[in-house]
Amino acid sequence: MSEVRVVRRMTPEMLRGMGRLEDGVLVGEETMLRVGRSGFTLSYLPLPKAVWRSFPPASGALPEQVLRADKGAVFGAWEGDRIIGLACIRMGSAGWAELVDIRVDAAHRRCGIARMLLDACDRFAAEQGARGIRLEASEANPVLCQFCEHTGFVLHGLDRMALVYTEAERSKPMARRACALYFYRLCGA
After folding, report:
1. What is the per-residue pLDDT across 5-63, written as a single tens digit (0 to 9) for each?
2. How many other CB atoms sit within 10 Å of the CB of residue 132?
3. Nearest residue to 102 (alpha-carbon basis) of 89, 111, 93
4. What is d(CA 171, CA 14) in angstroms, rounded to the nearest whole number?
5. What whole-number distance in Å separates Cα of residue 130 and Cα of residue 139?
């Protein structure tokens, strides 16, 4: 039987002693964004072959940077003395808390760890007086998009140019480059 899993707010000392999370994701679908009269919807089309993808933290989203930021927090999910998940959140503009990174070790996915981390982030956002949580995702990460949809986030915006010139997207034709998707969730949702 596995050890008890807990979520703790991280300190700089805890981050220094933290091991690496195996954060690769097996992606078997492609995200399809549709814009209609009622807003944005996502659908998912199967890829001919599943591929492993890794998504490094966005610039400014490294746990050490979030901890140094004013009104930022990092939460770690632990199983015994081993880190199995991590979430970074900071207060953003216009009263929204920004979930800048959330990841769970590949061996511990689909066990509720990300939801535990998200609940801790939700409590932090509420304590800071935030309206809710905002999360930026990419069409290239359908696993994160599906997680957002299943945990009460709603897609309310996109930016077609935000990722166009990133290293990962430059080699693709302009029409096939990923765009940034903005998901929102009210505190306590």
Report:
1. 899 999 888 887 777 777 788 888 988 888 878 788 898 989 999 888 877 776 556 78
2. 19
3. 89
4. 38
5. 26
User: What type of residue is 38?
Assistant: S
Strand 25-36 and strand 39-53: the pairing is: antiparallel
For residue 23 the two structure tokens come to 């954060």
* Site of tokens 């990923």: 178
> At 120, is the secondary structure helix, strand, or coil?
helix
For residues 61 and 97, what is the distance between their CA atoms, to the nearest angstrom? Answer: 13
Per-position b or e across 57-93, b if 16+ CB within 10 A of its CB: beeebbbebbbeeeebbbbbbbbeeebbbbbbbbbee
In degrees and rounded to multiples of 5, residue 131 shows phi and psi of -70, -35
State pLDDT tens for residues 75-131: 999 988 888 999 999 998 889 999 999 999 888 888 899 999 999 999 999 999 999
Rounded CA-CA distance 160/178 in Å is 7
pLDDT of residue 1: 44
